[in-house]
Write a structure and sequence with these properties.
The chain is α/β, with parallel strands linked by helices. The chain contains 13 helices and 12 strands. The longest helix is centred in the C-terminal third of the chain and has 20 residues.
């Protein structure tokens, strides 16, 4: 049986990894080495120097590529390093159409680094693919999007946007961090590049910083590999080993996360102190139909705002939870709270945050895999004021 054609749970456990040929070890060894012996100049076993190749990293890259139904995988020292590698295939004068509701670190990289290097960015509401076309011209080389978006949980039509990208011979890159390969595979929907902050659901245990890219096209893969190799922002083998281990339970963790997320979203929607709940699983979510079409479930990322938009109430809740923990990041087994305006999206100007709905009272939840009754009780006591 070809593992690449197996069901998701089987691929999560087996794809990209083989028993160690030297010892038969079932787990991929941690190849903690910087260099490799050559029998003569150029005579090696496929590995020369661990910036360019490492067996532990290679196994992880193959695993992530298989989960995304891609052909080539590349791992980096962080999610932003992965995005940076994509930007490095562009040249001064090129233009990028980016979704406007995106991770603050992505916006900072685009607006504070690459804009000054001659790349022009257009930040566009991609709730409808038709919104994109007016911003595409002869200089446009890339469309960058997230779905679901961070933190407003908007859903963009990946297949619809990919058709526009192909029409204009523009590459489409999708940040698939919030969904994970368990819920969504952008390559199947026409994307050219899939990006992950591996730190989140793929690693799953809040103990690794890492990023990844996946693609199918060989020429594009050569460009991304060159950026990885030439810049050298690669993860170490210990971190790769931890993510390989984390991926083996991705399907189980995501199933529980989705189950818990649905319960918590409903709880919040019915709570008298909650104004709005942003979660694509609700039928009244403006992009619910697209989410249902392109995702297998709706995930455990939820944002909500409070009645009255009072920051003091928000701060009281964020400081009072006992099971939910106030911290940066998401996607771990533990449930986290986050205040986007002062944490993940502080680098986005306030006027832009206001346009997107990132108010002072907005709270983002990453629902973990604890007992959901404990999570509900924790939120209830935190909002009991």
């Amino acid at each position: 049986m070809d593992i690449k054609n197996a069901k998701f749970a089987t691929k999560a456990i087996h794809a990209g990894v083989e028993p160690d040929s030297a010892t038969g070890a079932i787990m991929t060894p941690i190849y903690q080495t910087s260099t490799y012996v050559q029998t003569h100049p150029g005579g090696h076993k496929g590995f020369e120097y661990s910036r360019s190749q490492n067996p532990t990293r290679e196994a992880l890259e193959n695993s992530i590529a298989a989960l995304e139904n891609g052909k080539h995988g590349f791992c980096f020292g962080s999610g932003l390093a992965a995005i940076d590698a994509v930007m490095k295939i562009l040249k001064p004068g090129d233009e990028v159409v980016s979704i406007n509701d995106l991770y603050g670190g992505s916006f900072r990289l685009f607006d504070k680094i690459y804009k000054d290097m001659g790349i022009k960015f257009h930040f566009v509401d991609m709730s409808s693919p038709d919104n994109i076309e007016p911003f595409i011209n002869a200089n446009t080389k890339l469309i960058w999007m997230e779905s679901p978006t961070n933190p407003m949980m908007s859903i963009a039509d990946i297949e619809g946007i990919s058709k526009i990208a192909k029409k204009h011979n523009v590459r489409l890159a999708v940040d698939n961090t919030f969904a994970s390969p368990y819920l969504q595979n952008p390559i199947d929907l026409g994307a050219d590049i899939v990006m992950h902050s591996v730190t989140k659901y793929l690693g799953g245990h809040s103990d690794v910083i890492m990023g990844a890219l996946v693609c199918v096209d060989d020429e594009l893969a050569d460009q991304l590999y060159f950026a990885q190799y030439a810049v050298g922002a690669v993860p170490g083998p210990q971190d790769c080993f931890l993510v390989l281990r984390g991926i083996k339970t991705l399907h189980l963790r995501m199933q529980r996360t989705c189950e818990n997320g649905a319960v918590i979203a409903k709880f919040l929607k019915e709570h008298p102190k909650v104004d709005k709940v942003y979660w694509p699983g609700f039928e009244d979510h403006p992009n619910h139909a697209i989410a249902k079409k392109q995702m297998r479930d709706f995930g455990g990322m939820i944002s909500f705002s409070l009645v009255g938009n009072n920051y003091k109430d928000t701060e009281r809740i964020l400081s009072s939870t006992k099971v939910f923990t106030l911290a940066e990041s998401l996607g771990g087994v533990e449930s986290l709270t986050n205040h986007p305006a002062s944490m993940t999206h502080a680098s986005i100007p306030k006027e832009e945050r206001d346009k997107l709905g990132i108010s002072e009272s907005l709270i983002r939840l990453s629902v973990g895999i604890e007992d959901v009754e404990d999570l509900k009780a924790d939120l209830e006591q935190a909002m009991n004021f």
